[in-house]
Amino acid sequence: MRIGTWNLAGRWSDAHLALLLEADCDVWLLTEVNERTSLPGYALHLTQARMAA
To answer: InterPro entries from the entry (predicted)?
Structure first.
């Protein structure tokens, strides 16, 4: 099993998506995720709290 971690620091772009998909991880643990983040093929489990602005 391949597990990846990344603090996105609120950023999200097509380049982020490409890197995540190319890494081919089975599980990603992402922190400080932007609300626009979408990762096809993965189930998202989000916290109830919002990231500080």
So the answer is: Endo/exonu/phosph_ase_sf
Q: How far apart are CA 35 and CA 24, in angstroms?
A: 22
Give the total number of structural domains in the chain.
Answer: 1
Two tokens, residue 37? 């983040």
In angstroms, the CA 33 to CA 27 distance is 15
Domain with 26, as residue range(s), is: 1-53
| Overall pTM surpassing 0.85 (yes/no) | no
Residues 10, 51 contacting (CB under 8 angstroms): yes
Q: What are φ and ψ of residue 20, in 5° steps?
A: -65, -45
Asked whether 46 and 5 are in contact (CB, 8 A), the reply is: no
